[in-house]
Amino acid sequence: MPAVEFFAAVEDFDRRLFSAMDERVAELERCGPPAGVDLDLGQLRAEHRQRSTWLAQRLAAPRQVDWAKVRAGVAVVSAWERVDPRP
Question: Left, alpha or beta for 56 (phi > 0: left; psi -120 to 50: alpha)?
């Protein structure tokens, strides 16, 4: 898979995940938490906002890849015995 496609898929997943989480947080803000659950909605909203920026921050940071370690890891994983997922 080309890296461009991989990163596009990661960014798409991130957008969908945080959109879904935003809907859940908004619902809690509208209706409150379930009975018996003590929840700091202001803190939850703040944490959600903060976490929603993590991917963009990480992708903006310069990447230094140790390709020798990546290739070594691929060699290890490639040597694993294949397991048939069917029962």
Answer: alpha
Cβ pair 17, 51 in contact under 8 A? no
Residues in Cβ contact with 17 at an 8 Å cutoff, skipping those fewer than 6 apart: none
Radius of gyration for the alpha carbons in the chain, expressed in angstroms and rounded: 20
Instruction: Round to whole Å and give the CA distance between 49 and 26.
Output: 12
* Residues sharing a CB contact under 8 Å with residue 71, sequence separation 6 or more, in sequence order: none
**Which of 4, 2, 6, 15 is closest to 54 using CA atoms?**
15
- Phi, psi for residue 40 in degrees, rounded to 5: -85, 95
pTM, full prediction: 0.69
pLDDT means over runs of 10, the chain (87 residues): 91 97 96 94 96 95 91 94 81
HSE-up (13 A, CA, CB side) for residue 84: 2
